[in-house]
Write a structure and sequence with these properties.
With 253 residues, this protein is an all-alpha fold. The protein has helices spanning 3-14, 20-43, 48-59, 62-73, 77-109, 130-135, 143-150, 157-163, 165-169, 172-181, 188-208, 216-252; strands spanning 137-138, 214-215. It has a two-stranded parallel sheet.
């Protein structure tokens, strides 16, 4: 690639609001079109320098091409980013309300009465009692999930769904928002780590504030939900990339 062409392409992609990988792909695509155009002029008898100059002139103004590519690379980027932040904030607020704040409010209003979230064996009132911890914790993976599914005749359907499928679905948006809003978290290990960390933190807060039981199943199902959200985002992103590549080809041609 000639220096003039390289400089021309760098000026185009430098102002695009996209990842380095996307810039590299766009550069390679534009370079291919320019190379073909240069060859056409060379076949007509022009020197290499003349062919390059004519090809760049025919290809178009840098600002015009960049503007057209920007619209196809990430249309309405600022609007989408703002919407994603608003939705992420609403999701976080709603999630924290149901998992923590609603329970805190309930306990304050019903202080001294029966705690439906945290159980004490008869004759035991100390939080640090081994019996209390044993009754309010489950550290055996999928034990409670198995009990819900196999002993469905002992539980209402809404309780079974809430503690199995519900625990997955409630964290699906987290995986989607992490991947869409924070590009640095757009990997499987990072989404898994963040999803796991958040749900462990919530489980520990619920337990030590006596707002819920510590259940390893909740942690595993919540983390699976976050990863499912990640895969949903990646699938949509791949389809969107295919559509954008088609639009970019139209903009270039």
């Amino acid at each position: 690639m000639g220096q003039d062409i390289k400089t021309y392409l760098e000026r185009i992609v430098s102002g695009l609001n996209c990842s380095n990988k996307e810039k590299q792909n766009i550069t390679e695509e534009l370079s291919g079109h320019l190379t073909l155009l240069v060859r056409e002029y060379e076949e007509k008898g022009f020197t290499s320098d003349q062919a390059v100059a004519l090809a760049l002139k025919d290809f178009g103004d840098v600002e015009t091409i960049r503007s057209g590519l920007e619209d196809t690379v990430q249309p309405n980027n600022k609007i989408l980013t703002s919407i994603s932040w608003v939705l992420f904030g609403l999701y976080s607020a709603i999630g924290l309300w149901f998992l923590l704040f609603e329970r805190i409010l309930y306990r304050l209003v019903n202080w001294g009465s029966f705690n439906r979230y945290f159980w004490y064996p008869e004759g035991t009132s100390s939080f640090f009692s081994a019996e209390v911890w044993k009754l309010n914790t489950n550290i055996i993976p999928f034990q409670n999930t198995y009990n819900y599914l196999m002993g469905s005749q002992h539980f209402n359907l809404d309780i079974i769904l809430y503690n199995t499928i519900g625990n997955i679905l409630i964290f699906v948006p987290l995986g989607i928002f992490l991947s869409f809003t924070f590009s640095r978290f757009r990997t499987f290990p990072k989404v898994m780590m963040i999803g796991f960390t958040i749900t462990v933190s919530i489980e520990l807060l619920q337990f030590f504030l006596q707002l819920g039981q510590f259940d390893i199943d909740d942690i595993l199902l919540n983390t699976i939900g976050a990863l499912l959200g990640y895969f949903v985002y990646m699938s949509i992103s791949k389809v969107w990339s295919i559509l954008l590549r088609a639009k970019k080809k139209e903009a270039i041609n």
